[in-house]
Design brief:
The complex is a heterodimer of chains A (238) and B (229). Chain A is α+β, with helices and mostly antiparallel strands and 238 residues long. Chain A is built from 4 helices and 10 strands. Chain A is globular and about 55 Å long. Chain B has 229 residues and is of the alpha+beta class. Chain B folds into 3 domains: 46 residues, RNA polymerase II/Efflux pump adaptor protein, barrel-sandwich hybrid domain (OB fold (Dihydrolipoamide Acetyltransferase, E2P)), CATH 2.40.50; 77 residues, OB fold (Dihydrolipoamide Acetyltransferase, E2P) (Beta Barrel); 79 residues, Ribosomal Protein S8, Chain: A, domain 1 (2-Layer Sandwich). The chains are: A alpha+beta (238), B alpha+beta (229). Chains A and B meet through strand 3 and helix 4 of A and loops of B.
Chain lengths: 238, 229
Amino acid sequence: MSYTKRVAGRGFDEARPMEAKVGVIKRADGSALFKIGNTWAYAAVYGPRNLHPRFMQDPSKGILRCSYNMMPFSSFNDRVRPGASRRSKEISLVTQKALEPVLNLQDYPNSVVDVFIELPLTEAGSRCAGICAASMALADAGLEMKDLVSAISVGRVDDKIVVDLDYSEEAYEGGPVADIPIAMMPNLGKMTLLQMDGEVTKEMLQEAMQKATKVCKDIYEVQKAALKQKYATTNGDE
Amino acid sequence: MTGITVQNKAVVVPGEVLCEDMGFLPGQGTYRQGERIYAGRLGLANVDGRMIKIIPLSGKYMPKRDDVIICKVTDITLNGWRLETNSAYSAMLGLKEASSDFIQRGADLTQIYGIGDYMMCQVINVTSQKLVDVSMRGPGLRKIKGGRIIEVNPYKVPRIIGKQGSMISMVKQELNCNIMVGQNGLVWIHGEPLNEQKAIEAIRKIGQESHISGLTERMKDYLQKNGVR
């Protein structure tokens, strides 16, 4: 009964302030920036393009390849050692698995769509920010997609269910904490990522998932507005 | 027109609901789930009678039969040339299709087209696995000499060409340049260096402003102000 107020005066169901922009990287086929509080994610999409090494090619459909990378200066704590780590490899994989269900790469046999996610500033919820940015970048690249993917981390801090945990909450010491990153297709209501670190009861998990669904719809609106912003002037005739 | 939830010619993003009426049919770039029709990609929603489709705004070129494209030679094999097409797939130019002249058996292929050469060619076949065959036999299909090549959004190519080539012939005439536009988004420009530079700017301008109405008029003014004469 001790966790009564969140650090930045946020409500328990309130996500950090969000900002999104599309077309931030000129040379990429599609790109986006997604900011949520102090977590910033850039995503760049290249392709569909020729895939090498050849043994990775799939003759029945194109493949998706994701890379998640935290920049050395991105953390509030120690410098992040550059290069791949066990953690970044796992996140790259779950990002790919979270985005694959919306993409239709049937028309691109033997090719690859590369997604590079770079994080210049991180404070919790970085995989979710990365997924949000990547799905906008994929749409910008003109790929066939069933829906966008929106992601948020929810969880419990002590006895409260909270949305979009920040670092101080992830590291809360006064009681049990659970961090549950969720990615979903907001229009179709399907989940594509569900992970958990910590401990929760069944009831708490259900409540958390409901809240995530609601927030994902808000994120979708932010993503949609950003995409339309880039092509805003593209509505006249012709 | 009930049930349509978006404006005609509005930008839509994947997952956006376009229509909630069984009386409409999902066209290209859309899909139906239950009563609703959803957007399946980013683009402009287009309602045509009972059909809703999406006009794409971005994306890579996808080789299509009969397209005339600009390619670059990347490799020479025993039976032809491998060409880079500005898409996910490379194309094959066979010996038989390489020119209207007869090529002797065992001839030195580098003498005909070398690595790095650009050429105008036509797609004659695309298989399900996206093996692309191209031909150089046809009017206007030839190796490209001199000038420069720029890349544009392949979905803007029809705008750059204009109706019956009106837009591109205007640029050609005003800037005294020779220009060829490939369906794959590569554009070849040849003329005086200064005019080439002006032509590049003009083509980029067409690509950027293609959606604003009165494009032809604006380009006419622009070219008259910035043209050679």
